Amino acid sequence: QVQLVESGGGLVQAGGSLSLSCAASGRTFRSYAMGWFRQAPGQEREFVAAIRWSGDSIYYADSVKGRFTISRDNAKNVVYLQMNSLKPEDTAVYYCAADCPGARCIREYEYDYWGQGTQVTVSS
C-alpha cells in the first residue's frame, strides 16, 4: 500500500514563490516516474510536471515551463515542486502522483497512486 501526502501550499502574491513537497510511504517502484497535477475550481485536472526516478528525464506542461522545477529524493521517497514567478492562473489544488511506468507520464490514468492535494492560491 502506498500513501502520498502533499504539503507546502498556501497563499502567495503574483510573482512570488512556493515549494511543494510530496512524501510517499509504503512501497513504490523507484524506476517509475512521479508527477504533479493541478485542478482549478470547476476545471478538469491537468498535468503540471513529471520526473523519472533518475531525475534526468523531466517533462513540463507548457504553461509552467521555465517557472516550475520538479525534483525528487529517491532515498526519502519525496518529490518536490519549486514554483517561481507564480501567476493567478496557477491557483489550484495541486496533487502528487506516483508510479507511472510510461515515458512522459502526462495523463492521469498512467499513475497508480495519488495524494489528497494541497491548495495553492495566487493573488493579483
Note down, in words, how this protein is organized.
The chain is mostly beta strands. 0% of the residues lie in helices and 52% in strands. The strands form two sheets. Strands 2, 4, 5, 6, 9, 10 and 11 form a seven-stranded mixed sheet that branches. Strands 1-3-8-7 form a four-stranded antiparallel sheet, with no helix packed on it. It starts with a strand and ends with a strand. The model has no long low-confidence stretch (mean pLDDT 92).
Mass-distribution shape: globular
Gyration radius, to the nearest Å?
Answer: 13 Å
Derived structural class? mainly beta
**Number of distinct helices:** 0
| Share of helical residues | under 10%
Through-space gap between termini: 41 Å
Low-confidence stretches: none
Oligomerization state: single chain
Mean pLDDT: 92
Number of strands: 11
Q: Give helix and strand order, one letter per element, not per position.
A: EEEEEEEEEEE
The biggest beta sheet reads: 7 strands, mixed
β-strand amount: over 45%
